[in-house]
Amino acid sequence: MQTTATLRDIQLQRLRQFLRWTCVASALGTVFQLGMWLWEPIWPDAVVGLSIFGFTVLTGVLYGWLPQLGIERTVLALAIGLLLLPLIMVLMRPKALGILVMVPFMTAVISVPYLSGRLVRLVLWMCWVTIVITAVLSYFVDLFQLDDPLLRKLTLITDIAMLAGLILVLIWRLFIQLMANVEQLETANTQLKQASTTLEQQVAARTRDLEKSLAENKRALDEQQRLLQENATQRSLIQGLSVPLLPVGRATLVLPLIGELDAERLAMAQAHALDGVSAHGARRLIIDVTGVSLIDSHVALALTQIIVATRLLGAETMLVGIRPEVAQAMIALGLDLANVPTAQTLEAGLAIF
Length: 353
Known about the structure:
Blueprint: H1 2-39, H2 43-64, H3 66-92, H4 97-100, H5 102-111, H6 118-140, H7 150-242, E1 246-247, E2 252-258, H8 263-280, E3 284-291, H9 297-312, E4 316-320, H10 324-332, E5 342-343, H11 346-352
Helix pairs in contact: 1-2, 1-3, 2-3, 3-5, 3-6, 5-6, 5-7, 8-9
């Protein structure tokens, strides 16, 4: 957006400079034509002088109103003013066809750098139509049929040389402008390539960082998985040790319970007891509750379920190590252990079984 604004400012400055010099040149042409009319007062010179003067006024107005009109409107108005000059002058001086047909070419060279698209085509069509009409008027219309003296012929040749030189200068300036635009494009292309290279380097560096971060995250995840696996293994081992099932004979198993019994340990104790009885073909299971400090309703219910389940498997269950306070708690809970053999210690229980 900033580049477009800068280019617009450059075009505006160049157009303003061209209008200033064109206004000065056309004013000098008006003075010259006035001198020719004073030297030989004939109507063709007067009309040509008035036409050039009108173009001078037009360029002055365009120069003053350039910021308000804008570049496109100003150039279109200037092109129309230039194209009207050969149409008027060819009626006054048909023999000046050689110089007059150069005006449309000069108009095209002036207009093209400032216009684009549809406006360029419009101006080129106007130039072509002007050349054709000027040629037709030169060959078929001669209003005054004047025989130009030598001085007027020399003046005409001088005008042709000057106008041709002006067209060449304009073409040269157009070439310089095109080369400047090409240089700007090459500079912009170089900057774009540099920016692209820098961006690629940044993307590559970012990709390496991401790959490194992903590798570190993967290592951390693998380590976490390993720790979780070890934790699960240790937890399984601890759980197995917290509810051990000890064979003390070919048909006798001991299930010692120690510490606080929660729902998980009780479920594990029941699973171990049933699996052990089934696997060993045991006929007797001794549950040692010496290390249990408190038996509540949940613990009592779980013990009762173990006793009933092992009985269904064909094994008899004995409770040993019941302390007085635990016995009182079990009675308060209303547990009926009349059919369950008990012993004060594990040794006594093994002696009975």
